[in-house]
Each structure stands twice: as C-alpha cells, then as structure tokens.
Design brief:
Blueprint (H helix, E strand, L loop, with lengths): L1 H6 L8 E4 L6 H31 L6 H18 L2 H9 L4 E3 H34 L4 H4 L2 H26 L9 E2 L6 H5 L7 H34 L4 H30 L7 H26 L1 H16 L1
Parallel strand pairs: 1-3
Antiparallel strand pairs: 1-2
Length: about 325
C-alpha cells in the first residue's frame, strides 16, 4: 500500500505524507505499541502527580517547585505531540498525515522542545542565586520574575518554532511523500525536498545555537559559579547537602541536552534515519517519562509531599 502511494507521487507536489513508523513487522508492532503505551501512561501519571503535589503542598510554593511544575507540564505536552501518533500508526494500516497536520505536529514539537531548553536554563539560574547569593534570593527571585521568566521561555520558543516550521513547509516536496521517521521532524523532511535546503539548515543551526546551545552555556556558567561557591564551604557534609539540591537538575540536563544537541547540531551528511529515530525516542519519549522519577527519587521534599498527598487520598 505504501509503495503504491509513493509511486503515485512522482514529481507532483506532496499534499499528504506517509510516516514510515517504527516497524512493518507485526510482532514488533505489538511490542512497540505495548512499550510506548506503558511509557506514555507513566509519563502522564508521573508528571500529573508531580504537578498536583506541588500545587497541594504549601511548603512547595517556592520558585524552584514552580519551575519544576512547569517542566512537568511541558513534558506532558511534549510527549503528547508524538506518542499518540506513534500508537495510532503502529496499529493502523493508514499511516498518512495531512500537510497541515504534519506542520502542526512539527510546530508544537519544536516549540515545546525549545521551551524545555530555556526553562532548564532558568532553573539553573534559580539554583545559582539560591546557592551563590542566598541572602538576596527572595528579593531577586520573586513571584513576578518567575512568571516573567516562564512566559518569556514560552513566547521565545513558539516564535522560534513558527519561523522554522514556516521555512520548512515553504519547501516543495516532490521527491517522495514517505517520511522515514515516526513523526514530522525537520531532518527527514529535508531529505524529501527537491530544492536546495541550505537556508533551512542555516536557520536550524542558528536556532539550535541560540536556544539549545545558548541555554546550555548559561547552565554551564551557572554551575561553574555554583561549584566555585561550594568548594569554599569547609565541611564535606555541607558541600554534599548543597550539591544534592542540584543533582536532579544536572541529570535531567545531561539527558535532554545531550540527545537534542546531537540531533540538531551534528553534520547532516553524517546522520542516518535509523540513528535519528533512536535519538529522537530518547528525548521525546524517554526523557519526559524519567524527569518526574528523577526529581521524586532525589528530592526529599517531593518524596515527603507525595507520601502526605497519597495518605490524604487514602484516608478520604
């Protein structure tokens, strides 16, 4: 069915795309469907629980947990732009996606991914002020600034995503309509264009440098200052206590930035569709699932709040 549809495209401009998906082998499709269903349910349950716990516990009404609950909201939306379509395509014979639907999926995926990059940088800045300037923390990181920083992350990312999506869907797709991927993303779409994509690749690299690499450099700078401050602390016990407040964030940053920067900043000629799919699964499916788990395991306040919330639910 897919081969016939692709042949009919010839040199006409594409109006509907066909997603290759994860596999055409029936047994593997069942495995993938069950695996991604479980991962998606864990993602939704873990992040919703984290948001509710922060919302319902007065002790967690602080900037750090405000940013963390926003991260959970982003992870829910980010995963939801991809996983439901993966599940549908895995069990359906029809893997088509409209031109508009493909553009919408790419737009929200890029926007939410960029928002997560910037928010992780904001969270690093929050830790920097808390550790390096603790006496001025409440004066600097107030409610107004928190809302402003989060709003700025969303606006900048959605504007950036609009530019990239607009440039991508201005390309004529006349080589094929078969996307060698499980959702609409720039690299596999670029391979289908019959026009030079230098402008699109330039825009992608500039966007990656500003949003992903720029945010990452701010995070590194924040943690450099934090490390210098911590090394001045005399006792090992106090050092470990300070470092423990940053451990979860450092692990989340490592997982997310490592995969997303590899995906968008490495030379296009050196990539393959199989490699791109594996890396994309890591940062769009796995990372949103493990983020709330990492924060719950590493954070004593979160663990106490979860136990308290679950206890209240049971008793009522």
């Amino acid at each position: 069915m897919l081969d016939k549809d692709v042949e009919n495209v010839n040199q006409t401009l594409v109006k509907t795309f066909l997603l290759l998906g994860l596999s055409n082998v029936f047994d593997l499709q069942i495995v993938f469907f069950l695996m991604f269903s479980v991962m998606y349910m864990i993602t939704l349950a873990g992040n919703v629980l984290l948001i509710l716990v922060v919302r319902l516990n007065p002790r967690l009404q602080t900037p750090m947990y405000f940013f963390l609950s926003n991260l959970s909201l982003i992870d829910i939306c980010f995963s939801s732009t991809v996983v439901p379509k993966i599940l549908l395509n895995t069990i359906s014979q029809d893997r088509s996606i409209s031109f508009v639907g493909c553009a919408a999926q790419m737009y929200f995926h890029l926007a939410l991914g960029g928002t997560e990059c910037l928010l992780l940088a904001v969270m690093a800045y929050d830790r920097y002020i808390a550790i390096c300037n603790p006496l001025h923390y409440t004066a600097v990181i107030d409610g107004r600034l928190c809302i402003g920083l989060v709003t700025g992350c969303w606006i900048l990312s959605f504007v950036n995503s609009f530019i990239l999506t607009f440039l991508t869907f201005q390309l004529p797709y006349c080589k094929s309509n078969l996307i060698s991927h499980f959702f609409c993303e720039m690299p596999p779409l670029f391979r289908l264009s019959c026009r030079d994509i230098w402008l699109n690749e330039l825009a992608e690299y500039i966007s990656g440098a500003i949003v992903a690499l720029g945010s990452f450099m701010l995070i590194l700078l924040s943690y450099l200052c934090i490390t210098i401050t911590v090394l001045k602390i005399r006792t090992n016990k106090e050092r470990q206590k300070v470092f423990s407040t940053c451990a979860s964030h450092v692990l989340v940053v490592s997982l997310y930035y490592g995969t997303i920067m590899f995906m968008h900043l490495h030379p296009r000629a050196a990539s393959s569709s199989e490699q791109d799919r594996v890396v994309t699964i890591l940062y769009t499916v796995v990372t949103p699932m493990v983020n709330p788990i990492i924060y719950s395991i590493r954070n004593k306040d979160i663990k106490k709040a979860i136990r308290k919330t679950m206890s209240n639910v049971v008793h009522h």
